[in-house]
Amino acid sequence: MTTKKNEIIGNYEISEGKLTTRREVLMMGALAAGTLVGAAANAASDPAKPTTISGATVEIKERDFSALISKKMEGLSSNQIEQHLKLYKGYVAKTKEIDALLNAPDVITQAPAANATYAPLRELLMEQSFALNGVVYHELYFGNLGGTGGDPTGDLKSAIEARWGSSAKFMDYLKASGKCMRGWVIIGWNTRDGALHAYGLDMHNMWSPAAIVPIVVLDVYEHAYMIDYGINRAAYLDAFVKNIDWDVCNKRFAAARKHPVGADVTL
Ligand SMILES: [Fe+2]
Q1: What pTM was computed for the model?
Q2: How far is the CA of 218 from the centre of ligand 1 (A)?
Q3: Which CATH number describes the domain made up of 154-256?
Q4: Cα-based torsion angle of the residue sequence 257, 260, 262, 263 in order, rounded to the nearest 10 degrees
């Protein structure tokens, strides 16, 4: 990435290839008006331009879930979905912003040097996982909404019944998990043991399990239901299961089953 002198990205400034927090810049009296030209802003204005994460080129592009707004799902209002999608859009923008900073020159060597208590690189790496997971989990969540709900279908139904005994018991387990967690519930295919499990996260990047493929993704942050249900999460969970798109979940399950299973597949 080509950087400009005194380029400001979020709370950081890149000057002569050096990364500095804006607070530090302000303390030095070096922040001049008119220099707010950030790489993140550039990326946002050029959505076709791929961004990079830790040196690997990947494309972070906002996906269009607006059909969910007009779908008028049972128990999930258009306004609730619309506001939630705005939040998702923010995670896309922040992921791009963090990507740009992580690929800035000398980000690893800037003072304070690499340090597990505080360092710019540490903060960026932590928030990268928060922002990126915020994008991915929301896409999986919106992606498995908009269906007709009810009992699971297809091969996934068989796997769920093998794991939880029956579709009804699975639904109870899913809802109970949703009441226990503060962020997400993931029904995931574990590529280590070749089975479905429920996983819980309190934040996008808190307790994210490794080696799983998400099959059903449930957002239980308050923002997912506060407009429609206030603090009545149980009512939201009832609404969520009425709108699961089992066809989408079955496609994910079919893709997940192609992954080799076992503890030695990630050599
Ligand atoms: Fe959310």
Answers
A1: 0.79
A2: 9
A3: 3.55.40.20
A4: -120
